Amino acid sequence: MNPILTALIVSSALLSWGANAAAPATAILLNGTVVTPNTVIQNGWVAIDNGKIVSVTAAKPKIAAAHTLETRDIIFPGFIDLHDHPLYNVYPRWTPPQAYHNRYEWRSADSYMAAIANPHRAVAAPNFCDMDRFVELKGLIGGTTTTLGISQPRDTDISCIAGLARNLDWFTGFYGTTVGQERVQSVLGVQPDDVKYAPAGLADALKKGDVDMLAIHIAEGQRSDDKTKKEFAELERLGWLTAHTAIIHGVALTRADFAKVHAAGAALIWSPRSNMELYKETANVADAAAENVTIAIAPDWSPTGSTNMLAELKFANKVNDSQFKSVFSAKQLVEMATSVPAKVARIDDKVGAVKPGLYADLFLLRGNAATPYDALVNASPDDVTLTLVGGVAVSGQLNYLTALGITKTEQTTLCKAQVAINSAAAGGSLADAKTRLGKALTDNGVALGPMVECD
Length: 455
Ligand SMILES: [Zn+2]
Fold this sequence. Notes:
Elements: H1 3-6, H2 18-21, E1 27-35, E2 40-49, E3 52-57, E4 66-77, E5 79-80, H3 103-106, H4 110-123, H5 128-140, E6 144-147, E7 166-167, E8 184-187, H6 192-195, H7 202-208, E9 213-218, H8 226-229, H9 231-237, E10 245-249, H10 255-264, E11 267-270, H11 272-279, H12 285-290, E12 294-297, H13 309-323, H14 330-335, H15 339-344, E13 362-365, H16 372-377, E14 384-389, E15 392-396, H17 398-403, E16 409-413, E17 418-422, H18 423-426, H19 430-443
Parallel strand pairs: 1-4, 5-6, 6-7, 8-9, 9-10, 10-11, 11-12
Antiparallel strand pairs: 1-2, 2-3, 4-13, 13-14, 14-15, 15-17, 16-17
Helix pairs in contact: 5-19
The chain binds zinc ion (ZN).
């Protein structure tokens, strides 16, 4: 179904999700302010067993032999990042020397080639596993538990992608134990050079629901730019505007276009920071909201977007206030980064909420529990105190990991706080990966970018 995946080179035919991060044998009880789909439970409890949430209650459940973590933190569902180019998150911020008309303009600009494209060509294949570990942890320390968009460097074994965060296009652990069973398709765009790499029969596959989600860049550029303006009509012409389509960016979409997006049941993925950096404009999400379009938030990538979902949510909150008259509440913004992308990717029966029956993909946040959504949209990198994927504590405060029975950890500094990484889940040392990666990048004229950007 996914021709990109058929090209996958794996070192072993069977890859268990548990290879790096087996669900703990002992149940977990998390205490804190629990943000559920319908209500916020102050001083509530989340019980986790065998990787899944088994109960969400106000009273402490009676479970014998559980690791118990009592906190004053806020418990959120993990972020679901539907638009990223994670391998590029190893690079430092690239400051565009000008505002560009469209994405095709900067992608061939000398400044971009020197800062990112040329080094990437040399570095990606030989350093894939170090890059993957670095970028997935960069998301996880900010609460991102599901992502997509890692591209396979040519002739490269990428089986190390299994573990850490869920990769919607390679391996989520939702559909068995082998890589390549995923139901999400990425196509770069609708320009001829992009369309030629799209799988044959995509329109039919979308219509039949054989593909859960098509993520595709559309109208990424300035509203006045001719090339950018024509892309939405081209998406329609190709038969790719469907209930399974997620339009990335949509900067040049008009209100009439958004009416068509809604009528088709398609969604918009909004990446405001990258849009503002590259084009000085972003999608008119107020118009999109007025047409009841489903909107998700995602960071695009570190060079011109945000370092991770947490940072992009903060940026989106500011743009929501400064450009869109606060059309979205803090609660809506948080949902646009959690439950909404889960629905768009058709994985809301698995993740995206703190709800019994779903996988325990969660994070804890230090902040004012009386206003949990405001706390999250204004949070700083140091505020995430724990991230779990499938009930496995991957990163967080050392004392939290210790309370959950994690014995082998590695600490790294974020802004002021230290975060501990679960070494077994990481499948190796982050510091070693950083050293090797730093050298490979320096040899190619660039530095390793930061894990976080501090205020
Ligand atoms: Zn993109």
